[in-house]
Specification:
binds zinc ion, 154 residues, Dna Ligase, domain 1, two-stranded antiparallel ribbon, 49% helix, Arc Repressor Mutant, subunit A
């Protein structure tokens, strides 16, 4: 628990630096939205973030949350997962990492793997273009869904 508090404090310090560098005001509202992101390990979408912050921030709209998240993305504070803009998931972890994606419930969790960090880029990929960073997405069924599925089928 202590460790994760320390990590959050570091992320918030990082948040202030990136905002300053980009000339973006570090408002209370933006801080809250960013805090919500770093506290949620499941890469939430805009609506999920909105539901969490709406009690804490009076008069905030879903539209504001959207625009704030995309602003974060534009200044390099977070990255996004998924092709669709409406259901884009937001990721505050800027370190190299990979994802486990549950196809049942939409859970997306980070994991690290040195082996996957250093996967060989196949020749056929070099034909398409110059490879940059590498991120592996594993699709499957998470433990929670697996257990639920078992209960239903019993
Ligand atoms: Zn699941
Ligand atoms: Zn991630």
């Amino acid at each position: 628990m202590k460790n994760s508090n320390k990590k959050q404090a570091q992320s918030l310090a990082n948040f202030k630096i990136i905002c300053q560098d980009a000339g973006v005001k570090c408002t209370q509202q933006r801080m809250k939205i960013y805090s919500e992101l770093i506290q949620n390990p499941n890469h939430p979408d805009a609506e999920t973030v909105y539901k969490k912050v709406q009690n804490q921030l009076a008069n905030i709209s879903l539209d504001t949350v959207y625009r704030t998240l995309w602003l974060f993305k534009d200044i390099g504070l977070i990255t996004t997962i998924g092709p669709s803009r409406e259901r884009t998931r937001f990721d505050p972890n800027l370190k190299p990492h990979h994802h486990f994606i549950c196809t049942e419930c939409g859970l997306i969790l980070d994991f690290n793997s040195e082996q996957m960090d250093t996967l060989d880029i196949h020749e056929s990929i070099k034909m398409i273009g110059k490879a940059g960073s590498l991120q592996v997405n594993i699709q499957g069924i998470c433990r929670g869904c697996e257990i639920n599925g078992k209960i239903i089928s019993d």
